[in-house]
Amino acid sequence: MGSLVRYALLLISLLASLFGVPSDQAQDLRERDALCNENGCFVVYFQRKTFLDSWRACKEKGGNLATIKRQEEADTIATLFSSVDLRHSRTKVQVWIGLQRQPRQCTASRLLRGFSWTTGDQDTQYTNWQREDSPSTCLAPRCVVMGYSTSADEQPNNFKWLDGSCSVPVDGYLCRYTYKGMCHALWSEGGGNALYTTPFELLSPLLTHVPFGSVATVPCPEGTKDEQSVLCMLREDGSVGWSRDAPLCSDPPISQNWCEQDNGGCEHFCREAGAHYYCECSDGFQLGEDGQSCELADVCQGAPCEFECLPLSDGYRCACPEGYMLAPDERGCLDVDECLQSPCEQLCVNAPGTFECRCRDGYRPDEEGECEDVDECANDPCEHACENTQGSHICHCHLGYSPLPEDPSQCQDIDECQIAGTCDQMCVNYDGGFECYCEVGYELMPDQFSCRKIGEEDGQPASHTDWPPEVDETLDWLTDPPIVPGSDVIWVTRAPQAELPFSSEKNSPTQKPEEKDDDTEMGGDGHVPDWFESDDRAELEAVPTSTTPPPPTSPALTPTSECGNSVQGDREQKQGSSWLLVGLLVPICIFIVVMVALGIVYCTRCAVQPRNKNTTDCYHWISGAHDKQEALFSHISSG
């Protein structure tokens, strides 16, 4: 019995060497990892591989990635997974099946959407897509996985097809092996169930259909023969069956010459190995997928493939590494621009055979590769206050300060006293604020801006300001504003007030009394910005108050006091000049009016033209002239 077991193990190792299965890639299949019927076997391998590596692993054992073209095949796969062990306590797996699509081969009108089976055809009567096809996936090679889960929530998606990147390894792959025929299972002859060794290295007593080329080891009852081994082979009549018919344990053991009959079915050479045999090929040939036929070896020698050549039964096929796709000539490889599919959240940089995701300035990748905002404020880049924003930050200055134009992260003091209208009389600037003061004989009103004479009633501020009104020199000929008797109108000329920073958030000492009722220290909505909440808040709130000792009221420290005294004198001088100007302008205006009237009369007289005269018009008849002459003569004579 021990010798037969050794022979079986030797045959398995020989078959593995013939099919070129590396020992480091072999997986110990469990009894329920495969399910066979009259059409072949489906076998699931739980090894993480890419699509190309999975296809190669199936080919090396004489199979191919699974094709599911009919409902019956889908039912067989469902039966297989219903009893399979998912390994490592997993509840969900994804396995490759034999569907792939080259770039720009989308065909939404067809059942397979442009995908092809690894067998080279697109025929099918069955599909089981999990979701609709996306046009954005047509630009890169796509391969199909089938999902399976033991979780009740995900079972509706069991055995659904989902396309994805061919270069991403998944949990496993599903192979399909087809043969010339299948042998029926052997009945137990009293020593136990037969153990079957298949060409794809499965040891199982559970098979109901045994693949062609498998060896069955039948244990015999005690007191009879040793365990018997038979081969599933091609018989003389062309059918596939066991090398010996049952019963196996009741007949006397006979020596079997496997290669004696029809060369064991081998095309070239048949080699016996004890109770087993195997086929070999001549030099320059290699064993075919059926384990008996021989085909030319190394078909890729001299093949014009740019990267990789895959031998096929009818020739070869060129393949490209990950990140490339096969060129139209089916020999060269073209780089796939993965960035066309927008795989990155922000920036994508394509490179030969791959791509790289990057983040914009102000962002950095997290553990999952997604871009997250960098909090620049954590490094205290601002002198006063910092507000973080998406991808950047903003520096703010405390009340009474403004950002430096050349470096917005630094702050400089605002000299409010240089702004016209800041104070009624005198102004003293200090870092972060200012204070208003009054001349001798005046006191500061509660609005911290206006001055009134000491002893005057509340609400009657001083009527003058410490800045003379700006008067255009070209208007010196105008008279002063009219004085309205008994009117309460006060003529005021005030320089424009520049807008102070943070005027909308905090009342400054220069606000008018009527604006003081608008609300409290911040804006009308009472909202305090996040960046404004800092340890310096107490300092900020103290800006408009008198936190510094009041300066002396001497003229040396109040440079605006002399200016205030001179303004009143200038006003009196201007009032006298105005009356003098009125005295000069009135006679001038009267003279102008008279001259205008004379001009009008003159123009009117000149406009009357004399009519034309003749000689007779210069003479006229005088009535009574003769009587006057006689009277004259009589007077002379009487005298």
From TrEMBL:
Residues 527-540 have a biased composition (Basic and acidic residues). Residues 37-167 form the C-type lectin domain. It is a single-pass type I membrane protein. Residues 456-483, 497-571 are annotated as: Disordered. It is found in: Membrane. One of its GO terms (molecular function) is carbohydrate binding. This is CD248 molecule, endosialin a. It comes from Myripristis murdjan (pinecone soldierfish). The lineage of its organism: Eukaryota, Metazoa, Chordata, Craniata, Vertebrata. The gene is CD93.
